[in-house]
Specification:
By secondary structure, the chain is mainly alpha-helical. It has helices at 12-28, 53-75, 82-106, 118-132, 147-163, 170-194.
Length: 204
């Protein structure tokens, strides 16, 4: 036997090429898709924008006001016919004329009364509200104030302004708005004094 060792030559380049080929195939394979996160039925935390609630509240208030007006109309008696109204107005005018003639007969210096117009209605509301707020009190006397009555009178004048909007002349509308402004300012001044500390409430 020969004692000479045998050598086996291995081609390392071929092995390296096979390793690189195997690593390339594994890299080329697409990654498995991730599963989507489950959708929760609970609402997400944080503020929530609501758009329709104010409109729904306004519609509910409008329906309530309409229902109230309808109920009031049902409780009212039937309106008079046009003929009944005409006859009643003629009788009223004749009676008012007889009264005026009697007054003028007893007081010849008194002239004919002017016809009642829109300005007289506004003036009546104005005088009523000012008297309720203590105006016209004689000197030395304590004013008698009906603050809630004054508020109701001013609010009635506001209703009149709202219902007659667009049906008044420019002069009538200017007068009405000026009277409302003056009455509301007087009301604010009076309520500020009532709420001031150290001022005793007025006795009725």
């Amino acid at each position: 036997m020969s004692d000479t060792p045998k050598f086996e030559v291995i081609d390392r380049r071929k092995m390296k090429a096979e390793e690189e080929k195997g690593s390339g195939e594994s890299a080329a394979q697409p990654a498995a898709p991730e599963k989507p996160a489950p959708i929760s039925s609970e609402p997400a935390p944080g503020p929530r924008l609501v758009v329709n609630e104010p409109r729904h509240e306004a519609e509910a208030q409008e329906r309530a006001a309409t229902a109230e007006e309808q109920q009031l109309a049902e409780e009212m008696p039937a309106a008079p016919t046009a003929e009944e109204s005409s006859q009643q107005k003629a009788a009223y005018d004749a009676s008012a004329q007889r009264l005026e003639d009697l007054i003028r007969a007893q007081n010849p210096a008194v002239g004919p009364q002017p016809p009642v117009g829109f300005e007289h209605l506004v003036q009546q509301f104005y005088l009523s509200a000012m008297l309720q707020m203590g105006a016209g009190t004689q000197e030395g006397q304590r004013p008698r104030v009906d603050i809630m009555g004054a508020r109701a009178t001013i609010d009635l004048l506001g209703v009149l302004a709202e219902k007659t909007r667009g049906n008044l002349t420019e002069a009538e509308d200017r007068m009405l708005q000026s009277v409302l402004f003056e009455l509301r300012m007087a009301f604010l001044e009076l309520t500020s004094m009532v709420g001031a500390p150290g001022v005793p409430p007025a006795k009725s």
